[in-house]
Each structure stands twice: as structure tokens, then as C-alpha cells.
């Protein structure tokens, strides 16, 4: 799948974000090696800590469906109501990076970010999580 198409899938996922507290809507599209795309959005909770990030939603959906091998993830995020042209790059949080490391090769797995003005940033997991912990 083309990178731009995966970004479009992340934008679709973002529309389903449940964010009554922060109003910050994130969407992720995780591409498995077999071509399946798993969507994820952030899901907040009134007790705050049970909230889940978009990236982890996508990973947990995929893992729970038996998928284990992944190529890349696209992520978009912006406050509700902000026009797409004003979206900034949304980097995955540290917890989500650690979850990615559990399932992906750090020097191969790619993280695509999109800022709403046609610019894309691309990183390997290793670049965003150097010296990550694993057993
Ligand atoms: N959020 C994500 O979904 N992914 C990240 O990597 C960073 C933060 C969500 C969590 C919360 O619902 C909102 O963005 C504001 O922190």
C-alpha cells in the first residue's frame, strides 16, 4: 500500500476518536505484512488513566486478531475543530513506542507522520526509540 493511502486511512480512523476530555483526536493506521490495515483511535475515559492511545488501539486490535507481523504505521492528530491545513505532526508517545518495540523490528518498522500540508515525516522505530528495553 502506498504511504499516502495509509495516511488517508489514519485520517479516517481519527474521525472515530472518543476525546470528550482532551479534545485531541488521534488516528492511526497500522499496515500488517499481509496487507491488512488496522485502524485505531484514541479512546478517553472520565477517570483519565484508563484512556488508550490511537496507536495502541490499532496494535491491540491487530494482535487480538492473531496478526504479528507489521510494516508501518501512519499517525495523524490534532485538536477537534482545527482545520486540516493547520495540523502539526503528531509523534507517538513513549508508551506507544514501547508497545511497537514489543512486536516490530526497530530498524525495519516505519512510522509515518503527516502535518496536513502535504508534508510527511518518516522514521524507523529505532530512530524514535533508541536503546529501547526488551528481554
Ligand atoms: N494520544 C494518542 O492517541 N497517541 C499518542 O501517541 C499521544 C497522545 C492521545 C491520548 C489522549 O487521548 C490525547 O491524545 C491527548 O493526550
TrEMBL record:
<feature type="binding site">
    <location>
        <position position="96"/>
    </location>
    <ligand>
        <name>Zn(2+)</name>
    </ligand>
</feature>
<feature type="binding site">
    <location>
        <begin position="42"/>
        <end position="48"/>
    </location>
    <ligand>
        <name>substrate</name>
    </ligand>
</feature>
<comment type="similarity">
    <text>Belongs to the cytidine and deoxycytidylate deaminase family.</text>
</comment>
<protein>
    <recommendedName>
        <fullName>Cytidine deaminase</fullName>
        <ecNumber>3.5.4.5</ecNumber>
    </recommendedName>
</protein>
<dbReference type="InterPro" id="IPR016193">
    <property type="entry name" value="Cytidine_deaminase-like"/>
</dbReference>
<keyword id="KW-0862">Zinc</keyword>
<dbReference type="InterPro" id="IPR002125">
    <property type="entry name" value="CMP_dCMP_dom"/>
</dbReference>
<dbReference type="InterPro" id="IPR050202">
    <property type="entry name" value="Cyt/Deoxycyt_deaminase"/>
</dbReference>
<dbReference type="GO" id="GO:0008270">
    <property type="term" value="F:zinc ion binding"/>
</dbReference>
<dbReference type="InterPro" id="IPR006262">
    <property type="entry name" value="Cyt_deam_tetra"/>
</dbReference>
<dbReference type="Pfam" id="PF00383">
    <property type="entry name" value="dCMP_cyt_deam_1"/>
</dbReference>
<feature type="domain" description="CMP/dCMP-type deaminase">
    <location>
        <begin position="1"/>
        <end position="135"/>
    </location>
</feature>
<keyword id="KW-0378">Hydrolase</keyword>
<feature type="binding site">
    <location>
        <position position="53"/>
    </location>
    <ligand>
        <name>Zn(2+)</name>
    </ligand>
</feature>
<dbReference type="GO" id="GO:0004126">
    <property type="term" value="F:cytidine deaminase activity"/>
</dbReference>
<comment type="function">
    <text>This enzyme scavenges exogenous and endogenous cytidine and 2'-deoxycytidine for UMP synthesis.</text>
</comment>
<dbReference type="GO" id="GO:0005829">
    <property type="term" value="C:cytosol"/>
</dbReference>
<feature type="active site" description="Proton donor">
    <location>
        <position position="55"/>
    </location>
</feature>
<dbReference type="GO" id="GO:0072527">
    <property type="term" value="P:pyrimidine-containing compound metabolic process"/>
</dbReference>
<keyword id="KW-0479">Metal-binding</keyword>
<feature type="binding site">
    <location>
        <position position="93"/>
    </location>
    <ligand>
        <name>Zn(2+)</name>
    </ligand>
</feature>
<dbReference type="GO" id="GO:0055086">
    <property type="term" value="P:nucleobase-containing small molecule metabolic process"/>
</dbReference>
